[in-house]
Design brief:
The chain contains 27 helices and no strands. By secondary structure, the protein is mostly helical. The longest helix is centred in the N-terminal third of the chain and has 32 residues, at 67-98. The chain is globular.
């Protein structure tokens, strides 16, 4: 009877399996990132809107050089990124203990709560503070989701299409941004607070879709295996492939995952593991992951995305409504140029696409700052061309790649923490860029675009010397690449270029030959007894008791008919 009360379990599949289940997972993942994209575009049309400025006069600029209003605009827009940072920080410290699914559920709920608070803000004094608090809470939810969803998706995807699927998450960021821009434009004709309240409230729509989707889908089989829940992990693996859990293919995949888990299962895992070197190269891999998000922000993407309408209006001196229209066109081009990435992400690979994106963006901002040096109307139009060219290259490459690459580059031991660290880096840098861009443009003019051009040029050698190719590789193969790099004293990108694709058996053979698992096995022997005690004491936490009551002797029982015959009889 108790089993019937399990409304949310780690193994829900909504009655789907095989391709249908993978499609449902992909739709849910992209819904979470479309919400993120919507939030990115939301404030661009609102922050300078008549009704928002009327409700909150502190954001209204009485002149082009009103520094106080410029700072307030930057703070109100960027406070969301601070919330996202703290959400990501929570995932970095607690993500591996809690699991992927409950984090996304809580993130979606927080987004709803924060949106309600922001939408219900009234008045010039307390109202702006309430709006900011709601934005921060919404940001916490988004931070949890963006730190978790790429890992969840990566761990449930096949190597040959993992990049394509996670790329889809990044691409719908642009779709969400486009929706926000055009909603802002359409409602600019409304002469009431609905002009800004409706776009803000629309966040709830995306959050509820995400919540409904994630509740009906399973947790990562790799996470389940890492928690000693092998039966559930094999059940999910079987469902993902449309096979019986005892099929030879499922057993082979489960064995590889289980072997990787066994090497560190009895060790204490903490954020300190991110800073270890040796054959695992966790610290180097964490730095590479974080660098993707650092350079995504400091190469200028959100300076363009958050403030495109402000740039068209104040820097290029266009009419406000025409600026909104151009902002909508800008976001539409942004969304359209994500389409080529679907064809290039696997065929061209991550490394080459990174190089193309950084080079194209550098050239684009060079055009923009060069045109703005001589402040004429004709040159201002050339600067706008540079911005449109920038967003085209960004949509093709650097939009999605920093979300695909970190969970791929990280080891299983610290994958959630590494991805959360990279996402924390995104949000801190995002906050800085969104906060300083209005003031930077106001005081420095074309110097702002020169700065972003230089950052793009600096990114090119970082990509060339430190980023190995991961396309078509299993997550376990990437461990071999970094171990071999450490043992041979060469760069990981060279190893990846010369190492052929490996089967499950070859991964195991290479790992043993490189001594990749020696350190882990020694630590496991030392910590075996302590680890066993920790496993027992953590059973309640890792058993997801908030959502999933335990049965019998505490053994986890999969949903959807995956339990034992004795479980069925007890019902």
């Amino acid at each position: 009877m108790l089993k019937k009360l399990k409304l949310i379990t780690r193994t829900n599949t909504a009655g789907l399996d095989g391709r249908a289940l993978r499609l449902a997972i992909t739709i849910t993942a992209v819904t979470g990132f479309s919400l993120f994209g919507y939030d990115q575009g939301l404030m661009s049309g609102i922050i300078t809107g008549k009704e928002f400025n009327s409700e909150f006069p502190a954001t209204h600029k009485v002149s082009d050089h009103d520094r106080h209003a410029t700072v307030v605009q930057g703070a109100v827009t960027s406070c969301y990124e601070l919330g996202c940072f703290f959400g990501s920080l929570f995932v970095m410290f607690r993500g591996e203990h809690i699991g992927r699914k409950p984090l996304v559920i809580v993130g979606a709920l927080l987004t709803v709560v924060g949106t309600v608070i922001s939408t219900a803000a009234f008045g010039p004094h307390w109202g702006l503070g309430q709006f900011v608090i709601g934005r921060v809470i919404t940001g916490i939810g988004t931070g949890m989701n963006t730190s978790t969803i790429p890992v969840w998706q990566s761990e449930m995807s096949k190597p040959e299409n993992r990049g394509l699927l996670v790329n889809l998450e990044g691409s719908v960021i642009a779709v969400g941004t486009m929706i926000a821009y055009w909603i802002d434009f359409g409602l600019s004709y409304v002469n009431s607070s609905v002009q800004w309240r409706f776009p803000v409230a629309m966040q709830i729509f995306f959050a509820l879709l995400l919540l409904v989707g994630i509740v009906q889908l399973p947790d990562s089989p790799r996470w389940l295996m890492s928690q000693g829940r092998r039966e559930e992990a094999m059940y999910v693996l079987g469902k993902l492939d449309g096979l019986d859990p005892n099929d030879d293919q499922i057993l082979a995949e489960a064995t590889v995952i289980q072997d990787a888990v066994n090497r560190f299962r009895h060790q204490k895992r903490s954020v300190k593991d991110l800073f270890t070197g040796g054959k695992g190269q966790n610290f180097q891999r964490a730095l590479i992951a974080a660098s993707t998000q650092f350079f995504q922000q400091f190469t200028g993407c959100n300076a363009a995305i958050y403030y495109s309408t402000v740039l068209f209006n104040e820097t290029i001196k266009l009419d406000y409504r025409l600026s909104l229209i151009l902002g909508g066109v800008f976001s539409t081009i942004y969304a359209l140029f994500t389409i080529p990435s679907f064809f290039l992400i696997e065929s061209l690979g991550r490394r080459k696409l990174f190089l193309i994106g950084a080079t194209g963006q550098a050239i684009s901002f060079t055009i923009t700052f060069a045109c703005l040096i001589d402040d004429t109307t004709q040159n201002a139009k050339g600067a706008a061309v540079g911005l449109f060219l920038f967003i085209s290259f960004f949509g093709v490459a650097l939009l999605s790649l920093p979300w695909i690459y970190p969970p791929e580059i990280a080891s299983m031991r610290v994958r959630s923490s590494t991805n959360a660290l990279s996402t924390c880096t995104n949000w801190l840098c995002n906050f800085a860029v969104v906060m300083f861009t209005p003031i930077f443009i106001q005081d420095a003019g074309w110097g702002c675009y020169l700065f972003f051009a230089v950052m793009n040029y600096l990114y090119i050698p970082v990509i060339f010397f430190f980023y190995p190719e991961t396309a078509g590789r299993s997550l376990e193969e990437i461990d071999i690449i970094f171990a071999k790099s450490h043992v041979d004293g060469t760069r990981p990108w060279r190893v990846a270029a010369n190492l052929p694709k490996l089967s499950f058996a070859e991964v195991e053979d290479h790992g043993n030959a490189l001594g990749l698992y020696d350190d882990d096995l020694e630590k496991e022997d030392v910590n075996m007894n302590e680890g066993a005690e920790n496993t027992a004491s953590n059973e309640g936490v890792n058993g997801y008791t908030l959502f999933e009551p335990k049965e019998g002797a505490g053994q986890p029982t999969p949903a959807d008919g995956a339990g034992s015959s004795s479980d069925s009889k007890s019902e």
